[in-house]
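hiii so um. not sure if this is the right channel but i have a protein structure encoded as C-alpha coordinates and i wanna go backwards to a sequence. like what aa goes where. can anyone help
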Protein backbone atom coordinates (compact mmCIF):
# COMPACT_ATOMS: atom_id res chain seq x y z
CA UNK A 1 0.00 0.00 0.00
CA UNK A 2 1.61 3.31 -1.04
CA UNK A 3 2.28 6.24 1.19
CA UNK A 4 -0.24 8.85 0.16
CA UNK A 5 -0.69 12.36 1.55
CA UNK A 6 -4.16 13.17 2.83
CA UNK A 7 -5.42 16.48 4.06
CA UNK A 8 -6.97 17.60 7.29
CA UNK A 9 -10.43 19.11 7.38
CA UNK A 10 -9.73 20.86 10.65
CA UNK A 11 -10.08 24.66 10.37
CA UNK A 12 -6.81 26.52 10.46
CA UNK A 13 -5.87 30.00 9.40
CA UNK A 14 -2.62 28.86 7.87
CA UNK A 15 -3.58 25.31 6.97
CA UNK A 16 -2.25 21.94 7.97
CA UNK A 17 -0.27 19.22 6.32
CA UNK A 18 -1.05 15.60 7.06
CA UNK A 19 0.48 12.39 5.75
CA UNK A 20 -1.22 9.11 6.29
CA UNK A 21 1.78 6.83 6.44
CA UNK A 22 1.06 3.09 6.40
CA UNK A 23 4.06 1.40 7.99
CA UNK A 24 4.51 -2.28 7.07
CA UNK A 25 6.40 -4.84 9.10
CA UNK A 26 6.66 -8.64 9.14
CA UNK A 27 4.90 -10.89 11.57
CA UNK A 28 7.43 -13.75 11.74
CA UNK A 29 5.00 -16.24 13.24
CA UNK A 30 2.19 -15.85 10.73
CA UNK A 31 4.24 -14.63 7.74
CA UNK A 32 1.60 -11.95 7.28
CA UNK A 33 2.03 -8.28 6.58
CA UNK A 34 0.94 -6.04 9.46
CA UNK A 35 -0.26 -2.57 8.59
CA UNK A 36 0.37 0.01 11.26
CA UNK A 37 -1.50 3.09 10.06
CA UNK A 38 0.13 6.18 11.45
CA UNK A 39 -0.89 9.75 10.76
CA UNK A 40 1.84 12.37 10.75
CA UNK A 41 0.32 15.78 11.14
CA UNK A 42 1.91 19.18 10.79
CA UNK A 43 -0.29 22.19 11.37
CA UNK A 44 0.16 25.87 12.06
CA UNK A 45 -2.58 28.24 13.14
CA UNK A 46 -0.36 31.29 13.32
CA UNK A 47 3.26 32.36 13.15
CA UNK A 48 3.97 31.54 16.78
CA UNK A 49 1.90 28.38 17.27
CA UNK A 50 2.51 25.17 15.37
CA UNK A 51 2.07 21.54 16.28
CA UNK A 52 3.57 18.27 15.24
CA UNK A 53 1.82 15.09 16.22
CA UNK A 54 2.09 11.36 15.58
CA UNK A 55 -1.22 9.56 15.98
CA UNK A 56 -1.31 5.73 15.76
CA UNK A 57 -4.54 4.65 14.11
CA UNK A 58 -4.34 0.95 14.86
CA UNK A 59 -2.91 -2.26 13.52
CA UNK A 60 -4.55 -4.54 11.01
CA UNK A 61 -3.53 -7.75 9.31
CA UNK A 62 -3.31 -7.94 5.56
CA UNK A 63 -3.97 -11.54 4.59
CA UNK A 64 -1.57 -11.51 1.67
CA UNK A 65 2.00 -12.70 1.11
CA UNK A 66 4.55 -9.92 1.45
CA UNK A 67 6.04 -10.43 -1.98
CA UNK A 68 2.78 -9.45 -3.63
CA UNK A 69 2.46 -6.13 -1.81
CA UNK A 70 4.92 -3.83 -3.66
CA UNK A 71 3.30 -1.84 -6.42
CA UNK A 72 -0.10 -3.32 -5.61
CA UNK A 73 -1.76 0.08 -5.81
CA UNK A 74 -0.88 2.45 -8.62
CA UNK A 75 -2.68 5.67 -9.26
CA UNK A 76 -3.13 7.12 -12.71
CA UNK A 77 -1.47 10.34 -13.73
CA UNK A 78 -4.51 12.46 -13.09
CA UNK A 79 -4.77 11.33 -9.50
CA UNK A 80 -1.03 11.85 -9.07
CA UNK A 81 -1.24 15.43 -10.35
CA UNK A 82 -4.18 16.12 -8.09
CA UNK A 83 -2.36 14.65 -5.11
CA UNK A 84 0.80 16.66 -5.75
CA UNK A 85 -1.09 19.91 -6.34
CA UNK A 86 -2.99 19.55 -3.09
CA UNK A 87 0.26 18.89 -1.31
CA UNK A 88 1.75 22.02 -2.92
CA UNK A 89 -1.19 24.10 -1.69
CA UNK A 90 -0.70 22.83 1.83
CA UNK A 91 3.02 23.53 1.84
CA UNK A 92 2.47 27.06 0.55
CA UNK A 93 -0.10 27.68 3.27
CA UNK A 94 2.55 27.12 5.95
CA UNK A 95 4.81 29.96 7.12
CA UNK A 96 8.12 29.80 5.28
CA UNK A 97 10.06 29.56 8.52
CA UNK A 98 8.08 26.44 9.53
CA UNK A 99 8.45 24.43 6.33
CA UNK A 100 11.81 22.98 7.33
CA UNK A 101 10.02 21.09 10.09
CA UNK A 102 8.32 18.92 7.47
CA UNK A 103 11.72 17.35 6.80
CA UNK A 104 12.29 16.83 10.50
CA UNK A 105 9.04 14.90 10.76
CA UNK A 106 10.08 12.59 7.93
CA UNK A 107 13.50 12.03 9.47
CA UNK A 108 12.09 11.18 12.87
CA UNK A 109 9.16 9.02 11.80
CA UNK A 110 10.56 7.22 8.74
CA UNK A 111 7.38 8.27 6.92
CA UNK A 112 8.09 6.87 3.46
CA UNK A 113 7.65 3.22 2.59
CA UNK A 114 7.14 3.78 -1.13
CA UNK A 115 9.15 5.62 -3.80
CA UNK A 116 6.01 7.03 -5.39
CA UNK A 117 5.11 8.92 -2.23
CA UNK A 118 8.69 10.11 -1.86
CA UNK A 119 8.72 11.46 -5.42
CA UNK A 120 5.37 13.18 -4.85
CA UNK A 121 6.78 15.11 -1.91
CA UNK A 122 9.97 16.01 -3.80
CA UNK A 123 7.91 17.35 -6.70
CA UNK A 124 5.57 19.24 -4.38
CA UNK A 125 8.51 20.94 -2.66
CA UNK A 126 9.97 21.87 -6.04
CA UNK A 127 6.69 23.37 -7.28
CA UNK A 128 6.26 25.20 -3.97
CA UNK A 129 9.61 26.95 -4.62
CA UNK A 130 11.42 24.99 -1.92
CA UNK A 131 14.23 23.34 -3.94
CA UNK A 132 16.57 23.41 -0.95
CA UNK A 133 14.15 21.37 1.13
CA UNK A 134 13.66 18.91 -1.72
CA UNK A 135 17.42 18.44 -2.08
CA UNK A 136 17.79 18.13 1.69
CA UNK A 137 15.14 15.42 1.76
CA UNK A 138 16.78 13.56 -1.12
CA UNK A 139 20.41 13.76 -0.02
CA UNK A 140 19.94 13.04 3.67
CA UNK A 141 16.98 10.70 3.81
CA UNK A 142 16.37 8.53 0.75
CA UNK A 143 18.85 5.85 1.83
CA UNK A 144 17.38 5.77 5.34
CA UNK A 145 14.05 4.73 3.83
CA UNK A 146 15.72 1.90 1.89
CA UNK A 147 14.45 3.48 -1.32
CA UNK A 148 16.32 3.49 -4.61
CA UNK A 149 15.82 6.61 -6.78
CA UNK A 150 14.38 6.10 -10.22
CA UNK A 151 14.51 8.18 -13.38
CA UNK A 152 11.70 10.46 -12.18
CA UNK A 153 13.49 11.08 -8.87
CA UNK A 154 16.65 12.19 -10.67
CA UNK A 155 14.60 14.36 -13.04
CA UNK A 156 13.08 16.26 -10.10
CA UNK A 157 16.53 16.70 -8.51
CA UNK A 158 17.88 18.12 -11.79
CA UNK A 159 14.97 20.59 -11.88
CA UNK A 160 15.73 21.64 -8.31
CA UNK A 161 19.38 22.36 -9.13
CA UNK A 162 18.29 24.34 -12.20
CA UNK A 163 15.90 26.42 -10.12
CA UNK A 164 18.77 27.18 -7.74
CA UNK A 165 20.94 28.16 -10.72
CA UNK A 166 23.37 25.39 -9.83
CA UNK A 167 23.61 24.15 -13.40
CA UNK A 168 26.96 22.39 -13.09
CA UNK A 169 25.55 20.23 -10.31
CA UNK A 170 22.44 19.55 -12.40
CA UNK A 171 24.70 18.39 -15.23
CA UNK A 172 26.65 16.17 -12.82
CA UNK A 173 23.41 14.53 -11.63
CA UNK A 174 22.40 13.94 -15.24
CA UNK A 175 25.71 12.27 -16.06
CA UNK A 176 25.56 10.16 -12.89
CA UNK A 177 22.03 9.15 -13.78
CA UNK A 178 23.22 7.78 -17.12
CA UNK A 179 26.24 6.05 -15.54
CA UNK A 180 24.05 3.98 -13.23
CA UNK A 181 21.85 2.85 -16.09
CA UNK A 182 18.94 5.29 -16.33
CA UNK A 183 17.98 6.96 -19.61
CA UNK A 184 16.81 10.54 -18.97
CA UNK A 185 13.71 11.62 -20.82
CA UNK A 186 13.86 14.28 -23.50
CA UNK A 187 11.98 16.57 -21.11
CA UNK A 188 14.76 16.26 -18.54
CA UNK A 189 17.40 17.14 -21.13
CA UNK A 190 15.28 20.05 -22.33
CA UNK A 191 14.98 21.50 -18.82
CA UNK A 192 18.77 21.56 -18.45
CA UNK A 193 19.36 22.90 -21.98
CA UNK A 194 16.81 25.66 -21.41
CA UNK A 195 18.44 26.63 -18.11
CA UNK A 196 21.86 26.97 -19.74
CA UNK A 197 20.38 28.97 -22.65
CA UNK A 198 18.51 31.37 -20.37
CA UNK A 199 21.78 32.22 -18.64
CA UNK A 200 23.68 32.74 -21.87
CA UNK A 201 25.77 29.56 -21.47
CA UNK A 202 25.12 28.39 -24.98
CA UNK A 203 28.21 26.19 -25.31
CA UNK A 204 27.14 24.20 -22.25
CA UNK A 205 23.69 23.77 -23.78
CA UNK A 206 25.20 22.47 -27.02
CA UNK A 207 27.33 20.00 -25.03
CA UNK A 208 24.15 18.63 -23.43
CA UNK A 209 22.55 18.32 -26.87
CA UNK A 210 25.59 16.37 -28.13
CA UNK A 211 25.49 14.13 -25.03
CA UNK A 212 21.82 13.58 -25.72
CA UNK A 213 22.58 12.28 -29.19
CA UNK A 214 25.38 10.00 -27.99
CA UNK A 215 23.09 8.07 -25.66
CA UNK A 216 20.35 7.76 -28.26
CA UNK A 217 17.84 10.29 -26.92
CA UNK A 218 16.31 12.21 -29.80
CA UNK A 219 15.67 15.94 -29.35
CA UNK A 220 12.19 17.26 -30.01
CA UNK A 221 10.98 20.64 -31.24
CA UNK A 222 10.84 22.02 -27.68
CA UNK A 223 14.53 21.23 -27.25
CA UNK A 224 15.37 23.02 -30.48
CA UNK A 225 13.22 25.99 -29.52
CA UNK A 226 15.26 26.44 -26.34
CA UNK A 227 18.45 26.55 -28.43
CA UNK A 228 16.90 29.03 -30.88
CA UNK A 229 16.02 31.36 -28.01
CA UNK A 230 19.48 30.87 -26.52
CA UNK A 231 21.19 31.84 -29.79
CA UNK A 232 19.07 34.98 -30.06
CA UNK A 233 19.69 35.79 -26.39
CA UNK A 234 23.44 36.03 -26.97
CA UNK A 235 22.96 38.02 -30.20
CA UNK A 236 23.69 35.22 -32.66
CA UNK A 237 20.59 35.91 -34.72
CA UNK A 238 22.08 34.76 -38.02
CA UNK A 239 23.08 31.44 -36.44
CA UNK A 240 19.56 31.10 -35.07
CA UNK A 241 18.09 31.66 -38.53
CA UNK A 242 20.42 29.09 -40.10
CA UNK A 243 19.58 26.61 -37.34
CA UNK A 244 15.87 27.16 -38.01
CA UNK A 245 16.39 26.39 -41.69
CA UNK A 246 18.21 23.16 -40.72
CA UNK A 247 15.33 22.16 -38.47
CA UNK A 248 12.92 22.66 -41.39
CA UNK A 249 14.87 20.08 -43.39
CA UNK A 250 15.03 17.58 -40.53
CA UNK A 251 12.46 15.03 -39.41
CA UNK A 252 11.55 17.29 -36.48
CA UNK A 253 9.49 20.06 -38.02
CA UNK A 254 9.53 23.52 -36.42
CA UNK A 255 6.37 24.96 -34.88
CA UNK A 256 5.16 28.54 -34.56
CA UNK A 257 7.25 28.96 -31.40
CA UNK A 258 10.38 28.15 -33.38
CA UNK A 259 9.61 30.94 -35.82
CA UNK A 260 8.59 33.31 -33.03
CA UNK A 261 11.92 32.80 -31.24
CA UNK A 262 13.90 33.86 -34.31
CA UNK A 263 11.43 36.67 -35.06
CA UNK A 264 12.07 38.03 -31.58
CA UNK A 265 15.82 37.88 -32.23
CA UNK A 266 15.43 39.88 -35.45
CA UNK A 267 13.19 42.47 -33.79
CA UNK A 268 15.66 43.04 -30.95
CA UNK A 269 18.41 43.99 -33.41
CA UNK A 270 16.23 46.30 -35.53
CA UNK A 271 15.35 43.86 -38.31
CA UNK A 272 11.58 43.78 -37.98
CA UNK A 273 11.05 43.47 -41.76
CA UNK A 274 12.92 40.16 -41.75
CA UNK A 275 10.85 39.07 -38.77
CA UNK A 276 7.72 39.85 -40.78
CA UNK A 277 9.06 37.74 -43.64
CA UNK A 278 9.50 34.84 -41.22
CA UNK A 279 5.90 35.22 -40.12
CA UNK A 280 4.76 35.09 -43.75
CA UNK A 281 6.86 31.94 -44.22
CA UNK A 282 5.22 30.33 -41.20
CA UNK A 283 1.81 31.17 -42.63
CA UNK A 284 2.74 29.58 -45.96
CA UNK A 285 3.61 26.38 -44.05
CA UNK A 286 0.08 26.33 -42.66
CA UNK A 287 0.94 27.47 -39.13
CA UNK A 288 -1.38 29.68 -37.11
CA UNK A 289 0.47 32.60 -35.53
CA UNK A 290 -0.35 33.23 -31.89
CA UNK A 291 -0.57 36.46 -29.95
CA UNK A 292 3.11 36.14 -28.91
CA UNK A 293 4.19 36.18 -32.56
CA UNK A 294 2.34 39.42 -33.20
CA UNK A 295 3.47 40.99 -29.92
CA UNK A 296 7.06 40.36 -30.98
CA UNK A 297 6.45 42.42 -34.13
CA UNK A 298 4.69 45.19 -32.18
CA UNK A 299 7.74 45.45 -29.96
CA UNK A 300 10.11 45.52 -32.94
CA UNK A 301 8.21 48.19 -34.86
CA UNK A 302 7.93 50.41 -31.77
CA UNK A 303 11.64 50.12 -30.98
CA UNK A 304 12.51 51.12 -34.54
CA UNK A 305 10.29 54.21 -34.45
CA UNK A 306 7.69 52.69 -36.78
CA UNK A 307 4.69 52.29 -34.47
CA UNK A 308 2.20 53.28 -37.20
CA UNK A 309 2.95 49.97 -38.93
CA UNK A 310 1.63 48.32 -35.80
CA UNK A 311 -1.84 49.70 -36.60
CA UNK A 312 -2.08 47.64 -39.81
CA UNK A 313 -0.58 44.68 -37.95
CA UNK A 314 -3.34 44.97 -35.36
CA UNK A 315 -5.90 44.81 -38.16
CA UNK A 316 -4.10 41.82 -39.72
CA UNK A 317 -4.14 40.12 -36.35
CA UNK A 318 -7.92 40.41 -36.01
CA UNK A 319 -8.45 39.20 -39.58
CA UNK A 320 -6.65 35.98 -38.64
CA UNK A 321 -8.90 35.51 -35.61
CA UNK A 322 -5.99 36.13 -33.26
CA UNK A 323 -7.36 38.23 -30.40
CA UNK A 324 -4.97 40.96 -29.18
CA UNK A 325 -4.17 40.76 -25.49
CA UNK A 326 -3.21 43.43 -22.99
CA UNK A 327 0.46 43.25 -24.03
CA UNK A 328 -0.48 43.81 -27.69
CA UNK A 329 -2.37 47.00 -26.96
CA UNK A 330 -0.04 48.36 -24.28
CA UNK A 331 3.10 47.78 -26.39
CA UNK A 332 1.59 49.52 -29.40
CA UNK A 333 0.14 52.30 -27.28
CA UNK A 334 3.48 52.95 -25.58
CA UNK A 335 5.26 53.07 -28.94
CA UNK A 336 2.75 55.50 -30.43
CA UNK A 337 3.07 57.83 -27.44
CA UNK A 338 6.85 57.58 -27.40
CA UNK A 339 7.08 58.65 -31.04
CA UNK A 340 4.46 61.38 -30.76
CA UNK A 341 1.64 59.70 -32.71
CA UNK A 342 -1.05 61.05 -30.38
CA UNK A 343 -4.10 60.77 -32.63
CA UNK A 344 -3.28 57.14 -33.43
CA UNK A 345 -2.61 56.46 -29.74
CA UNK A 346 -6.05 57.78 -28.83
CA UNK A 347 -7.61 55.43 -31.37
CA UNK A 348 -5.75 52.40 -29.95
CA UNK A 349 -6.65 53.50 -26.42
CA UNK A 350 -10.38 53.61 -27.28
CA UNK A 351 -10.17 50.22 -28.97
CA UNK A 352 -8.37 48.79 -25.94
CA UNK A 353 -11.10 50.05 -23.61
CA UNK A 354 -13.84 48.70 -25.90
CA UNK A 355 -12.11 45.30 -25.83
CA UNK A 356 -12.56 45.24 -22.06
CA UNK A 357 -8.99 45.95 -20.98
CA UNK A 358 -8.26 48.38 -18.19
CA UNK A 359 -5.48 50.78 -19.07
CA UNK A 360 -2.94 51.02 -16.27
CA UNK A 361 -2.37 54.09 -14.14
CA UNK A 362 1.04 54.85 -15.58
CA UNK A 363 -0.18 54.49 -19.16
CA UNK A 364 -3.20 56.72 -18.51
CA UNK A 365 -0.95 59.46 -17.18
CA UNK A 366 1.31 59.12 -20.21
CA UNK A 367 -1.65 59.37 -22.62
CA UNK A 368 -3.06 62.42 -20.85
CA UNK A 369 0.28 64.24 -20.86
CA UNK A 370 0.77 63.48 -24.55
CA UNK A 371 -2.72 64.70 -25.46
CA UNK A 372 -2.23 67.86 -23.37
CA UNK A 373 1.03 68.79 -25.09
CA UNK A 374 -0.38 68.14 -28.55
CA UNK A 375 -3.52 70.16 -27.78
CA UNK A 376 -1.35 73.28 -27.55
CA UNK A 377 -1.01 73.01 -31.34
CA UNK A 378 -4.21 71.14 -32.20
CA UNK A 379 -7.23 72.68 -30.48
CA UNK A 380 -9.42 69.69 -31.34
CA UNK A 381 -7.60 67.57 -28.76
CA UNK A 382 -8.53 69.81 -25.83
CA UNK A 383 -11.85 68.01 -25.34
CA UNK A 384 -10.08 64.64 -25.39
CA UNK A 385 -7.68 65.86 -22.73
CA UNK A 386 -10.55 67.09 -20.58
CA UNK A 387 -12.49 63.81 -20.99
CA UNK A 388 -9.43 61.76 -20.04
CA UNK A 389 -8.81 63.93 -17.00
CA UNK A 390 -12.42 63.65 -15.82
CA UNK A 391 -12.35 59.86 -16.28
CA UNK A 392 -9.20 59.57 -14.20
CA UNK A 393 -10.62 61.75 -11.40
CA UNK A 394 -13.68 59.47 -11.21
CA UNK A 395 -11.57 56.30 -11.10
CA UNK A 396 -10.32 55.84 -7.54
CA UNK A 397 -7.83 53.19 -8.63
CA UNK A 398 -6.11 55.51 -11.12
CA UNK A 399 -4.11 58.26 -9.44
CA UNK A 400 -3.18 61.37 -11.39
CA UNK A 401 0.53 62.07 -11.06
CA UNK A 402 1.53 65.58 -9.91
CA UNK A 403 3.33 66.39 -13.17
CA UNK A 404 0.24 65.25 -15.12
CA UNK A 405 -2.03 67.40 -12.96
CA UNK A 406 0.22 70.40 -13.51
CA UNK A 407 0.27 69.83 -17.27
CA UNK A 408 -3.54 69.76 -17.37
CA UNK A 409 -3.59 73.14 -15.60
CA UNK A 410 -1.07 74.55 -18.08
CA UNK A 411 -3.16 73.23 -20.98
CA UNK A 412 -6.29 74.94 -19.65
CA UNK A 413 -4.33 78.19 -19.37
CA UNK A 414 -3.17 77.91 -23.00
CA UNK A 415 -6.79 77.26 -24.04
CA UNK A 416 -7.91 80.40 -22.13
CA UNK A 417 -10.03 78.36 -19.74
CA UNK A 418 -8.61 80.22 -16.78
CA UNK A 419 -11.41 79.58 -14.30
CA UNK A 420 -11.01 75.81 -14.64
CA UNK A 421 -7.24 76.15 -14.38
CA UNK A 422 -7.55 78.18 -11.18
CA UNK A 423 -10.06 75.70 -9.74
CA UNK A 424 -7.82 72.71 -10.47
CA UNK A 425 -4.79 74.52 -9.02
CA UNK A 426 -6.64 75.16 -5.76
CA UNK A 427 -7.82 71.54 -5.72
CA UNK A 428 -4.30 70.27 -6.33
CA UNK A 429 -2.92 72.30 -3.44
CA UNK A 430 -5.92 71.65 -1.19
CA UNK A 431 -5.93 67.85 -1.42
CA UNK A 432 -2.24 67.65 -0.55
CA UNK A 433 -0.66 66.70 -3.89
CA UNK A 434 3.06 67.06 -4.25
CA UNK A 435 3.84 70.77 -4.63
CA UNK A 436 3.01 71.91 -8.18
CA UNK A 437 5.98 72.89 -10.30
CA UNK A 438 6.66 76.62 -10.43
CA UNK A 439 5.91 76.62 -14.16
CA UNK A 440 2.31 75.68 -13.27
CA UNK A 441 1.95 78.72 -11.00
CA UNK A 442 3.57 80.88 -13.68
CA UNK A 443 1.05 79.67 -16.26
CA UNK A 444 -1.96 80.49 -14.07
CA UNK A 445 -0.63 83.93 -13.12
CA UNK A 446 0.17 84.69 -16.76
CA UNK A 447 -3.33 83.61 -17.88
CA UNK A 448 -5.01 85.72 -15.17
CA UNK A 449 -2.91 88.75 -15.95
CA UNK A 450 -3.62 88.44 -19.66
CA UNK A 451 -7.33 88.82 -18.80
CA UNK A 452 -6.66 91.72 -16.44
CA UNK A 453 -7.52 89.70 -13.32
CA UNK A 454 -4.44 90.84 -11.49
CA UNK A 455 -5.95 90.60 -7.98
CA UNK A 456 -6.66 86.89 -8.50
CA UNK A 457 -3.15 86.54 -9.86
CA UNK A 458 -1.87 88.17 -6.69
CA UNK A 459 -3.80 85.61 -4.61
CA UNK A 460 -1.93 82.85 -6.47
CA UNK A 461 1.36 84.54 -5.57
CA UNK A 462 0.27 84.59 -1.93
CA UNK A 463 -0.71 80.93 -2.21
CA UNK A 464 2.85 80.10 -3.25
CA UNK A 465 4.34 81.92 -0.30
CA UNK A 466 1.95 81.03 2.50
CA UNK A 467 0.37 77.69 1.61
CA UNK A 468 3.31 76.16 -0.24
CA UNK A 469 5.97 78.00 1.76
CA UNK A 470 8.07 78.48 -1.34
CA UNK A 471 9.71 81.50 -2.88
CA UNK A 472 7.87 82.58 -6.05
CA UNK A 473 9.93 82.79 -9.21
CA UNK A 474 11.13 86.01 -10.82
CA UNK A 475 8.63 85.40 -13.64
CA UNK A 476 5.69 85.56 -11.19
CA UNK A 477 6.81 88.96 -9.90
CA UNK A 478 7.52 90.26 -13.40
CA UNK A 479 4.03 89.33 -14.57
CA UNK A 480 2.31 90.99 -11.61
CA UNK A 481 4.43 94.17 -11.68
CA UNK A 482 3.85 94.56 -15.39
CA UNK A 483 0.07 94.15 -15.05
CA UNK A 484 -0.15 96.53 -12.08
CA UNK A 485 1.85 99.07 -14.09
CA UNK A 486 -0.43 98.55 -17.09
CA UNK A 487 -3.50 99.22 -14.95
CA UNK A 488 -1.90 102.29 -13.39
CA UNK A 489 -1.78 100.77 -9.91
CA UNK A 490 1.67 102.07 -9.06
CA UNK A 491 1.43 101.52 -5.28
CA UNK A 492 0.42 97.87 -5.75
CA UNK A 493 3.30 97.48 -8.17
CA UNK A 494 5.69 98.90 -5.55
CA UNK A 495 4.28 96.54 -2.93
CA UNK A 496 4.93 93.48 -5.13
CA UNK A 497 8.40 94.74 -6.03
CA UNK A 498 9.25 95.26 -2.34
CA UNK A 499 7.95 91.78 -1.44
CA UNK A 500 10.21 90.30 -4.13
CA UNK A 501 13.28 92.13 -2.80
CA UNK A 502 12.44 91.03 0.73
CA UNK A 503 12.52 87.38 -0.44
CA UNK A 504 15.80 87.85 -2.26
CA UNK A 505 14.30 87.98 -5.76
CA UNK A 506 15.24 90.89 -8.04
CA UNK A 507 12.52 91.33 -10.70
CA UNK A 508 13.41 92.57 -14.16
CA UNK A 509 10.30 94.77 -14.14
CA UNK A 510 10.17 97.85 -11.95
CA UNK A 511 7.20 99.88 -10.73
CA UNK A 512 6.33 102.60 -13.26
CA UNK A 513 3.61 105.25 -13.52
CA UNK A 514 3.96 105.52 -17.27
CA UNK A 515 3.37 101.95 -18.57
CA UNK A 516 1.13 101.75 -21.59
CA UNK A 517 -2.37 100.44 -20.88
CA UNK A 518 -2.42 98.70 -24.23
CA UNK A 519 0.92 96.97 -24.23
CA UNK A 520 1.28 93.45 -22.88
CA UNK A 521 4.70 92.15 -23.71
CA UNK A 522 6.98 90.77 -21.06
CA UNK A 523 10.55 89.65 -21.26
CA UNK A 524 10.84 86.91 -18.70
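sure thing!! here u go:
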Amino acid sequence: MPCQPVFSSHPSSLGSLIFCSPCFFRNNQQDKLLLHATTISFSARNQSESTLSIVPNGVSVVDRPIKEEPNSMEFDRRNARFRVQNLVDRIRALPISERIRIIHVFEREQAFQNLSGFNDVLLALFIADEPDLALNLFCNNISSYNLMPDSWTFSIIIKCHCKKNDLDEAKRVLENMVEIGFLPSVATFTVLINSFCRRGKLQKAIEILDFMGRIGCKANVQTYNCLLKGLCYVGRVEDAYEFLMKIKKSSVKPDIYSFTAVMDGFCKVGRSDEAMELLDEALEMGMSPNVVSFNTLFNGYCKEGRPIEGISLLKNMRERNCIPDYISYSTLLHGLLKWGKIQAALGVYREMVEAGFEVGERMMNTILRGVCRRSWREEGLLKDAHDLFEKMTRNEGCAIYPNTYGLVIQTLCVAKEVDKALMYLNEMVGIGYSPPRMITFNSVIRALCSEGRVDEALSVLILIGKKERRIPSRICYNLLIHEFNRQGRWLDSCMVYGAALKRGVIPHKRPSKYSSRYEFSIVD
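oh and The chain has 24 helices and four strands.
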